[in-house]
């Protein structure tokens, strides 16, 4: 607020010029202030309500995008009848079905162990062994005076990068050399043979016996044979992984995850009801207190609510025409006496319908032209960069910004008015001062004339 203080009262008049100027300016300013306050208050009131509705529509948009996705109902559950034979896991989109699984052979890693014990102090002469794995041969040099522990280390140093490692086993009758492959499968088999050196090293190599052959896993799925180098079968059925544990048979059942699918519908219903309730709350009128809400009678809100309700009625009618009515699907609008446009959902009915015909449910809900896609298109027209609610919000923010600019202009105008009042009162004070001076002089002259007459 401008400062109109003179630092003193009216010298000639004794008037409170500062107070009078401030009161006159305040009186001049009040109508404009009231108008700007009213515009700003109403804009902010509407802005808050539209923000609540817009947020609810954004949540609904997210739920509908998830529901219309081609993979919306592709979440699967899997169960193996005998987990001790084969465990099972599944990814999205795996074909539903019951698969008869027979584990014929497990994949094994090649292992060789010497059958002749040696003492901990026995040493070997210098020589060379040859490791052959995957069609590739690798020379392993053994130093003069090497113990069995040294032979093991020489094998590990040379062969670990090829997936082969050695260890020394100790039993009651001595030490044994064990050499094994890191990976299962026939392709990972190996041999370790004597190449050169003394008879002691030759005898060590010759005593190696294959204890575990390198073998692929073999499994029959619905009678079809599948082999793999590991005990995880991943390519037989798309998305299905079998973890083979022992020989035997089991039944693996893959089915639609009805709980996940039901949650998609429930999330949509919750978001839809929140959007409808947000509109209802922002437009309601309290007859008892005679108080309107922020958007009571608002045309845009009436249009949004009407569009959603009409489209929902059309979509539910379309589902019913496909044999997915309320009794079958469990989805319907709330009925009398609380028919407020919201939805009710019976997950047990939906689960039964989904179990009976999952592809029919998928077709009815997913895609741009089905239930979720059509509703999402309508909802999307209100949000986003060019959405109706976004443009309305931008307009209200611009209105509030304009009020701020008008207040700045009003401040400048009122300061000029105050300065004009101030100048007028100062001039008035000066005039009164002059008149007081003249009056005083006249009074003195009259007093002097009276004195002269009396004498």
UniProtKB/TrEMBL annotation:
Domain Flagellar hook-associated protein 2 C-terminal as annotated: residue spans: 214-436
InterPro entries referenced in this protein's UniProt entry, alphabetically: Flagellin_hook_IN_motif, FliD, FliD_C, FliD_N
Entry annotated with the keyword Oxidoreductase: no
Localization of this protein: Secreted; Bacterial flagellum
The keyword Nucleotidyltransferase belongs to this UniProt entry's keyword annotation: no
Stretches assigned to the Flagellar hook-associated protein 2 N-terminal domain: 13-109
Pfam families: Flagellin_IN, FliD_C, FliD_N
The entry's keywords: Bacterial flagellum, Cell projection, Cilium, Coiled coil, Flagellum, Secreted
Role description: Required for morphogenesis and for the elongation of the flagellar filament by facilitating polymerization of the flagellin monomers at the tip of growing filament. Forms a capping structure, which prevents flagellin subunits (transported through the central channel of the flagellum) from leaking out without polymerization at the distal end.
UniProt record similarity statement: Belongs to the FliD family.
Subunit structure: Homopentamer.
Protein name (record): Flagellar hook-associated protein 2
């Amino acid at each position: 607020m401008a400062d109109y203080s003179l630092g003193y009262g009216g010298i000639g008049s004794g008037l409170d010029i500062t107070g009078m100027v401030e009161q006159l300016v305040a009186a001049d300013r009040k109508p404009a202030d009231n108008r700007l306050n009213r515009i700003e208050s109403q804009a902010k009131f509407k802005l808050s309500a539209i923000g609540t509705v817009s947020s609810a529509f954004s949540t609904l948009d997210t739920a509908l995008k998830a529901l219309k996705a081609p993979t919306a109902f592709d979440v699967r559950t899997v169960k193996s009848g005998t987990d001790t034979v084969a465990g099972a896991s599944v990814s999205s989109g795996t074909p539903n079905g019951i698969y008869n699984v027979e584990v014929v052979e497990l994949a094994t890693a090649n292992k060789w162990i010497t059958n002749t014990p040696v003492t901990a102090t026995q040493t070997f002469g210098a020589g060379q062994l040859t490791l052959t794995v995957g069609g590739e041969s690798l020379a392993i040099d053994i130093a003069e005076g090497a113990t069995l522990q040294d032979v093991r280390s020489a094998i590990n140093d040379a062969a670990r990068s090829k997936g082969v490692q050695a260890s020394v086993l100790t039993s009651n009758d001595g030490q044994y050399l064990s050499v094994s492959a890191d990976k299962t499968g026939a392709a990972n088999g190996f041999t370790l043979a004597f190449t050169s050196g003394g008879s002691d090293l030759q005898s060590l190599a010759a005593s190696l016996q294959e204890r575990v052959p390198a073998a692929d896993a073999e499994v029959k799925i619905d009678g079809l044979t599948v082999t793999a180098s590991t005990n995880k079968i991943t390519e037989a059925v798309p998305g299905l992984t079998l973890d083979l544990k022992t020989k035997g048979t089991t039944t693996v059942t893959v089915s639609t995850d009805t709980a996940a699918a039901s949650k998609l519908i429930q999330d949509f219903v919750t978001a839809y009801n929140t959007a409808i309730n947000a509109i209802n709350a922002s437009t309601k009128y309290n007859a008892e207190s005679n108080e309107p809400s922020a958007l009571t009678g608002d045309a845009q809100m009436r249009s949004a609510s009407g569009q959603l309700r009409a489209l929902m009625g059309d979509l539910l009618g379309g589902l019913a025409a496909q044999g997915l009515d309320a009794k079958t699907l469990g989805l319907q609008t709330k009925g009398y006496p609380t028919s407020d446009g919201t939805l009710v959902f019976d997950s047990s009915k939906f689960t039964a319908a989904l179990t009976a015909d999952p592809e029919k449910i998928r077709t009815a809900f997913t895609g741009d032209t089905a239930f979720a896609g059509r509703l999402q298109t309508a909802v999307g027209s209100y949000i986003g960069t060019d959405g109706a609610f976004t443009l309305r919000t931008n307009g209200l923010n611009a209105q509030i910004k304009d009020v701020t600019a008008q207040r700045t202009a009003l401040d400048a105008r009122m300061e000029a008015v105050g300065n004009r009042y101030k100048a007028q009162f100062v001039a008035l004070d000066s005039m009164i001062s002059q008149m007081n001076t003249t009056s005083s002089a006249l009074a003195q002259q009259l007093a002097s004339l009276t004195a002269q007459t009396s004498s």
